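To assess whether the prediction recovers the assembly geometry, we first specified each molecular entity separately, as shown.
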Amino acid sequence: MSQRQVLQVFEQYQKARTQFVQMVAELATRPQNIETLQNAGVMSLLRPLLLDVVPTIQQTAALALGRLANYNDDLAEAVVKGDILPQLVYSLAEQNRFYKKAAAFVLQAVGKHSPQLAQAIVDCGALDTLVICLEDFDPGVKEAAASALGFIARHNAELSQAVVDAGAVPLLVLCIQEPEIALKRIAASALSDISKHSPELAQTVVDAGAIAHLAQMILNPDSKLKRQILSALSQIAKHSVDLAEMVVEAEIFPVVLTCLKDKDEYVKKNASTLIREIAKHTPELSQLVVNAGGVAAVTDCIGSCKGNIRLPGIMMLGYVAAHSENLAMAVIISKGVPQLSLCLAEEPEDHIKAAAAWALGQIGRHTPEHARAVAVTNTLPVLLSLYLSAESSEDLQIKSKKAIKSILQKCTYLPALEPFLYDAPPNILKHVVGQFSKVLFPWIFRNTSAESGQLPTTY
Amino acid sequence: MATLARLQARSTFLAQQYYFRNSVVDIFRKKEYDAAVKIQSWFRGCRVRAYLRHLHRVATVIQKCWRGYLGRQQYQLIVKLAFCSMKMNLYNAMAVRIQKQWRGYRIRKYCFNYFYYKEYLRAVSETNDAIREALEEFAEMKEREDKKADLERKEKKKGYEARKMHYLLSTKQIPGIYNSPFRKDPDPWELRLQKAKPLISQRPKVKKISVSVSNWPAYASPQVLPQPKILPPIDRKPCQGPFRDITEVLEQRYKPLEPTLRVAEPINELQAAREELRKQECMRNIHDDMFLPFSSYNKNKKYIPLMHSSSKYGPDSYGSQHFRDENPTKWLCNKEIKEDKI
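The predicted structure of the complete assembly is given in tokenized form:
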């Protein structure tokens, strides 16, 4: 046979391999095919193709592996057990950018399922190579490496610490400043995942100078980017007063309030989460939020969403009102109480109702003025019915009982107390009657003691 | 005598009287003695009593003075105490007054300043209103921007479609589909088509031409070397006369070359492509020696003729010496074809 024909055989084989690997990669994009592929033993076929001579086949094989591992954790475990990871990590350091992207994608797909798999990735030394990839010129490679690091750091504090120890944080902060929006998004999400576990990790992120860059990017019009940035800032601010103060010093107010008017629901949710995390630490921080007009903005935001999106806003109002009576009065004049009672009445979920009940309790417990402001909106019967109904969860019952008790102990607004006399259980009825006596007794004493001698002063 | 008679008459009486008077004295001697004793004892008693009374009086005076002295002492003490307590009460009352004023002032100024509180709440509600307005404005502005962007996108798309469908423009002879003669006004698409510039095929995109010796014609093409953009000169007075607009002229004059396909590709494109392919293969190979077969049977290559033109007696001349049929009418017959009756 001629030389050409021999070469033709090799060419055919190469073509066949390329076709196979491209078809597998394409099939792996659809979830219904993956079961069939798994049963056909695709993993063992793809593994040698990773070491193929032709770079295109290597890259496509890595891409196919990544897509398969992305789908469920059995396949990801198969990737780990098949000792593919060390080979990937080794070749990550040397190959071209397409291969790096595909390999980083595989690492991300494996690492996202469970902490054990992420630990396996860390154990085979992938973190250093991923951090080296973060320094690459190509933005696609940086994106893939940043998302892999983010998924690894998401699971628990040890893994986050490992990511930080590999020196990823300064590079991620550099990635945030890059012009590509997708890269910014992923870097912000990775920083958010790192800083959410503990105050030390958040401090590390802050020390790398992340807050200033994150705060600048709040003005960016892209909604997904805003989501990630607000989430990152709220994860930083939630740990301690100092971190919250640093976030506030980056002059996020009143820009953050514009995010509460965004069309994207999750941007609104993350913005109200950020404001909640700031306001919950000290009365001074809550004061700052109130002075910037945050309470009105959050109240409007609560009014414009439904469901779980509202929850951080409701909790924020509760935290602000809990600090002092001036702040509770500020919440009342910002029309927070009608909004909260609306939430209490119309939300189907129990945990949101419990949060609304808690917030109302915090508002109404300070002085008779506050209790009157809460009672006037006719929420007390709603709270009572929630406490008494058998369908409410235990948490909801406890919270509504506490709210009723704390409001009733200060309430002197009699028309709101009257319905309670008819259908309240005895442990609440005693408070109601006590309040009635507090209001009525001085009146009786004043009006009858002059004529008919001294009434006994003990009652 | 008379007196004697009287005396004698009265002598018995006198004797009686003398007896009586002596006996009376005796009769009453005890009485008188008792009386005298009584009187004397009474008088002595009176004297003693007087003396006692005197003593009493004197003792009373002494006691009175002494008691007065003691009482005055007590009284001074009491007065002192009363005075002190009155003073203290006064001081307390004044202190209470001061404290009352101070506490009221302190609470009103520092702990719960009602007016400041009211002012603060008013300021907070004003800030809230301002923020609400600002946010609404922001939301409106965003919506307007979004709508504008949307409209622009739609316009661009329609413009692109109009450019692609430019051939549907109506001519003088044939009214286009958007300019039906039965309509009062032409369809807005017609106007858009009129305004649109016809879309010619895509200009060859400026490829990133790698600098290599093999593609020297690329140096000649105008896209490689950076062209300075020629702007129309400033402050040129429009020339008098029927001249065209200067920008149009310059645009036409400096229109970049759009060569035809034959000219755009270098003449030895095919050769260059083959060289490129050969070079790539060369790159992939581990070494440049060709894979030589084991035996040199290529030298003993025997020609294997076609089955069609070979027979026992050697090759057929058809196919190598002549290509036409020797007798074309060999297979023809004059009989008519019988049709099968179905």
